[in-house]
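Regression test case RT-17, inverse folding.

Input:
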């Protein structure tokens, strides 16, 4: 569980917090195996015996005062009695995790019989759009064949297709058998048959270890739905088949109800991989994509604001059905046409899944992403709770979870991997703030309760009998991190303790929220105003603006680069880069609305360091493929020219680019050899990433370098087309300086 705060020394009261101009909060990556310093938790069992405060329900931790019979809560100060079993256990503190570490992970007892525990077979279902092209289906087959290699023994796998009908595959016999049920074309229609009546669920879900070859054979039979097939069905009276044919909404709704019958019996969590080649245009949940082609300017409508909200609540409601059925949906859209991900995204993010967007099959990393996603551990049925000491409280929470309808500051996460990150900001409980004289420090406690499926241990595949291979065990665990923070005596101490990457994380969450509610222009304005106010507060705090005859002198004296505070220095560049990012660029600049939605979903779950990389890419230079020249350059052409290095490596999180300058010595091998330092760096980056970045090699003067040059943003106009000009970062700072002058008058 990695936790990082915007400031490691908290403001003493609300006046100090407002005077700093900084967001106050933290990010948490609850299922990360280690903390932010690379230290793992103390593991143990009997989590249900961990004492809890009678007043605030916080868990006992190393910061609590303990005597023989009682303990004082480190969050609210309440004195709690110790039960007799705890007194006996705590008499030997060395063997007790909560006595030795403030970061613990304890096993909890499971409800239900032992037999129910061992029937927790992992279930995976691939739902494939066959209203598509041959290229799309070939690409999807490649991805699923990669996925089959990553699935653990004992897993069950189902294959379903959708178009103007739903197709269920039975792969447990000698040859794959396909059974279809037609989808009614209208948005209110329902299936004539339940899927259970078409094919019993346990006939549909096949054991991977015995049926892998037949699943692969079934994938080879996939063909796009043809115009001939649609015409023949239209001739039988289904005239509206010709109007469309991607009945995604009806198929998903039927599939969730189908799987839900075995939720809690055959499986504890089913993962559905939905492969989509375009917008749903048939049956329930069909979307009107004509809104993308409308001329908003002539109607005096903000296109960015018009295209960000969902056009129907259908997929948000469908996500609720998925959750109730124990289903998590990962949505893979491989398309360059407008698909309205603004409406579809809820199906994945609210069911605990991921949203992936690939503009074409040519450079898609779909097979690698599938394998990577299935090869890493995940927790499900998670509950996340953040508690604080009494002087302050959680304010807003950000991330792909849904709040508990009954309890405040309690979030439910359907499925969580080791990368998923969430954010909170803080408010003071009242005007008092923290005590200046008391020895008590602010305390934050984060509790994460989760379930994992543990595969059979101690047996190799060859040793397992067919009856024991499916015996996966559910394990419920409780992970708790308790942290104590210092308080800042003055604003200098606040500024000196800033973590600029966490500040960026909270800013990104806030501008995404503002964009969704009020449009991209409002999100940009919010960000711009924040930097102006922060710069003004900083100049005021350090007394950098001189007074002459009672008036503040003008902008020539304003420090817009935070030269007195190294921790704040990166922020103007990060804000500039965020304003240049497609997340906040305008519709008329050619930003596709689906790509904007994809970035919103991606950036909302990244940890602070990864997000920093996505907003302001890392650019380093090499004098040879084996020799690093400089570890960090600014994103400008001037930096490239002055460095004199022949090789540059740019890491933009989703894209990695190796660029050889046009003046590079021809004897330097291109592309870099597999055993060189640069290649090892690239491989390490790829291995640690949650998604598979696209890798490009560009030779300056010979190849088209546009992809690389587009990332050199510092000479680009923050509000314009992005073409290099006299504008750019320097001009942006001048504008901020003028705005600060006006603000401080």
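Golden output:
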């Amino acid at each position: 569980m990695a936790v990082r705060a915007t400031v490691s020394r908290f403001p003493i009261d609300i006046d100090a917090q407002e005077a700093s101009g900084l967001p106050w909060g933290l990010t948490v990556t609850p299922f990360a195996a280690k903390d932010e310093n690379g230290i793992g938790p103390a593991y143990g069992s009997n989590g249900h015996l961990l004492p809890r405060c009678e007043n605030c329900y916080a868990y006992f931790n190393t910061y609590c005062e303990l005597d023989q019979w009682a303990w004082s809560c480190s969050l609210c100060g309440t004195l709690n009695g110790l039960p007799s079993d705890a007194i006996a256990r705590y008499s030997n503190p060395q063997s007790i995790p909560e006595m030795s570490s403030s970061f613990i992970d304890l096993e909890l007892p499971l409800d239900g019989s032992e037999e129910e525990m061992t029937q927790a077979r992992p279930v995976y279902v691939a739902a494939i759009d066959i209203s598509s092209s041959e290229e799309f289906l070939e690409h999807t087959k490649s991805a699923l064949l990669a996925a089959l290699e990553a699935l653990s023994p004992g897993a069950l796998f189902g294959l379903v297709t959708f178009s103007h009908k739903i197709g269920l595959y039975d792969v447990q016999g000698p040859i794959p058998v396909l059974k279809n049920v037609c989808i009614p074309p209208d948005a209110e229609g329902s299936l004539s048959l339940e899927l259970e009546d078409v094919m019993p669920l346990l006939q549909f879900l096949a054991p991977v270890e015995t049926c892998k070859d037949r699943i692969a054979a079934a994938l080879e039979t996939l063909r796009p739905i043809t115009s001939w097939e649609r015409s023949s069905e239209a001739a039988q009276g289904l005239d509206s088949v010709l109007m469309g044919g991607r009945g995604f909404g009806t198929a998903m709704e039927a599939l969730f109800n189908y799987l839900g019958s075995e939720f809690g019996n055959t499986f504890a969590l089913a993962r559905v991989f939905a492969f989509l080649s375009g917008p749903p245009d048939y049956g329930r949940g069909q979307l009107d994509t004509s809104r993308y082609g409308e001329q908003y300017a002539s109607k005096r409508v903000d296109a960015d604001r018009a295209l960000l909200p969902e056009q129907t609540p259908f997929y948000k409601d469908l996500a609720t059905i998925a959750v109730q059925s124990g289903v998590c949906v990962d949505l893979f859209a491989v398309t360059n046409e407008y698909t309205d991900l603004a409406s579809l995204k809820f199906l994945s993010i609210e069911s605990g899944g991921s949203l992936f967007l690939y503009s074409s099959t040519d450079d898609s990393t779909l097979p690698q992403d599938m394998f990577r996603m299935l090869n890493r551990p995940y927790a499900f049925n998670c509950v996340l709770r953040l508690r604080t000491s009494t002087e302050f409280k959680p304010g807003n929470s950000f991330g792909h979870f849904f709040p508990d309808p009954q309890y405040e500051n309690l979030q439910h996460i359907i499925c969580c991997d080791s990368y998923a990150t969430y954010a909170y900001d803080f408010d003071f409980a009242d005007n008092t703030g923290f005590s200046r004289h008391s020895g008590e420090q602010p305390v934050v406690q984060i509790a994460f309760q989760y379930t994992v499926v543990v595969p059979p241990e101690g047996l190799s595949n060859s040793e397992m009998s067919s009856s024991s291979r499916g015996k996966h065990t559910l394990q419920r665990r409780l992970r708790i991190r308790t942290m104590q923070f210092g308080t800042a005596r003055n604003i200098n101490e606040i500024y000196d303790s800033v973590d600029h990457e966490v500040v960026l994380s909270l800013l990104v969450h806030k501008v995404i929220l503002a964009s969704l509610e009020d449009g991209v222009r409002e999100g940009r304005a919010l960000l711009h105003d924040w930097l102006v106010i922060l710069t003004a507060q900083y100049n005021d705090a350090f007394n950098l603006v001189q007074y002459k005859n009672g008036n503040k002198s003008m902008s020539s004296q304003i420090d817009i680069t935070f030269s007195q505070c190294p921790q704040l220095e990166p922020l103007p560049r990060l804000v500039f880069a965020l304003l240049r990012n497609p997340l906040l660029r305008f519709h008329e600049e050619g930003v596709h609305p689906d790509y904007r939605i994809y970035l919103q979903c991606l950036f909302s779950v990244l940890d602070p360091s990864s997000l920093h990389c996505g907003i302001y890419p890392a650019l380093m230079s090499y004098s040879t493929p084996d020799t690093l020249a400089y570890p960090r350059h600014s994103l400008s052409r001037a930096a490239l020219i002055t460095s004199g290095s022949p090789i540059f490596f740019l890491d933009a999180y989703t894209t990695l680019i190796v660029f050889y300058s046009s003046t590079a010595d021809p004897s330097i091998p291109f592309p870099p050899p597999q055993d060189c330092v640069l290649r090892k760096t690239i491989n390490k980056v790829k291995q640690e990433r949650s998604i598979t970045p696209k890798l490009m090699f560009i030779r300056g003067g010979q190849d088209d370098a546009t992809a690389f040059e587009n990332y050199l943003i510092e000479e680009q106009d923050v509000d314009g087309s992005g073409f290099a000009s006299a504008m750019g970062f320097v001009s942006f700072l001048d504008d901020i300086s003028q705005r600060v002058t006006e603000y401080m008058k």
